[in-house]
Amino acid sequence: MRYYPIFLDLKNKKCVVIGGGSVAERKAITLLSCNADVWVISPEITPRLKELAKKKKLRYIKKRYEDRDIKDAFLVVAATNNRDANKAVFAAAKRYK
To answer: pTM for the complete prediction?
Structure first.
């Protein structure tokens, strides 16, 4: 295994989830349980994510991902169903670290 699992204090930290499907939903809900400041960026999201955004539990940015979207994020989760998009998010995150 190349990566080691770690525990992070995410309280009030900006965590950006790229994607709006079921995987993104699970990741966002997990981040919310850690009291993170969760931002979801995707043209479309699940009904549950819409509900959480409506209740102001997370911030929803309805748009396609751009590299600058993660510039000030503490943690970034690439949760799209597009391998190339996920790779682009990873590459951008490495540049901003």
So the answer is: 0.92
- Asked if residues 27 and 17 have their Cβ atoms less than 8 Å apart, the reply is yes
Which CATH number is correct for 14-96, 3.40.640.10, 3.40.50.720, 3.30.930.10, 3.40.50.300?
3.40.50.720
The DSSP string of 31-82 is HHHTT-EEEEE-SS--HHHHHHHHTTSSEEE-S---GGGGTT-SEEEE--S-
Whether the predicted pLDDT of 85 surpasses 90 = yes
> Tens digits of per-residue pLDDT, 39-59?
999 999 999 999 999 999 999
